[in-house]
Every structure is written in C-alpha cells, then in structure tokens.
Amino acid sequence: MAKKLEYNFLIKKASISIVKEILTQISTEGLYKKQHIYITFSLNHPGVKISKLLKDDFDDEMTIVLQYEFWDLVIDNYGFSVSLAFEHSDETLYIPFSSLISVSDPSEDFCLDFTPDFSDIPTKTSKIEKKETNNIISFSTFKKDK
Q1: Is the CB of residue 73 less than 8 Å from the CB of residue 66?
Q2: How many whole angstroms separate alpha carbon 17 and alpha carbon 24?
Q3: How far apart are CA 45 and CA 58, in angstroms?
Q4: Alpha helix (H) residue ranges in the chain
Q5: Which residues have C-beta within 8 Å of that of residue 36, sequence separation ≥ 6?
Q6: Whole-number Å distance between alpha carbons of 19 and 25
Q7: Is the pTM of this model over 0.85?
Q8: DSSP assignment, residue 131?
C-alpha cells in the first residue's frame, strides 16, 4: 500500500537544499554586486551556537545579513557557521537549518519562509543500555561476544 505523500516535508527539504546551494555559492564565489542575504533564525533552537553577549541583545530570533563583513562561511549537512563583524566584536555563529525562520535577498525580491523545527535534535541516550526484568539487571547484555 502506498504511503501518503507529505508535501510540506518535501517542500521544506527542497527549500533547505536551495539555502545550502545559495550559501555554497556565496562561500565559493562571493555575492554579486548589490546582493545581500538576510537570514532570520530562532535563538531558542538548542543547536544554535552564539555568544551569550550577543544572545542577550536579542529575544527569540535574530537576523544576520551576509553582505560585506562576513567570512569563514562553512556549510555542513545540518547547518552553517559564519563569522560576522558586530559593533562590539567579531563573532562566529553556528546556525542549524532547522532553526531557520526566513532567508531572503531583497535586491532580487527573493524570500523563503520556514517554521523552526526542533525534532532533529538528538536526544541524550546512555552509551550502555541496561536490560531490566523485574528489577534484575541481566549481565549478559554487557558480555562481549568472542
């Protein structure tokens, strides 16, 4: 039996692929003339890495602009890091794709909107899982196979 098509998931996946391609082109070729990219993301996403000093200046979300004073733009499968010049200092941020709210280029009348998604956050699990039965721990779980 065929499973239901999840259109919203497919659109989000395609949109993130577009963002990855945009950032990859920027990291290798730079920006064309007056282009500038606005990236808005949720600061509440646990995968966002940002200094406390900078985070304290904003509420739930932050918008960065890739135009002049940015460097070290690195993209991976889950997000990207970028160094930016702020009034008080230079900062390096890590922004997961799942924290995105919007990506736009006003010079080209382009915008993609997202709903931040925290479901991709790995849950902490124990390295050793215990097999319990009636409060008895079976040590065979920990026995190495020869």
Answers
A1: yes
A2: 10
A3: 14
A4: 7-29, 52-55
A5: 65, 66, 67, 105, 106, 107
A6: 10
A7: no
A8: -
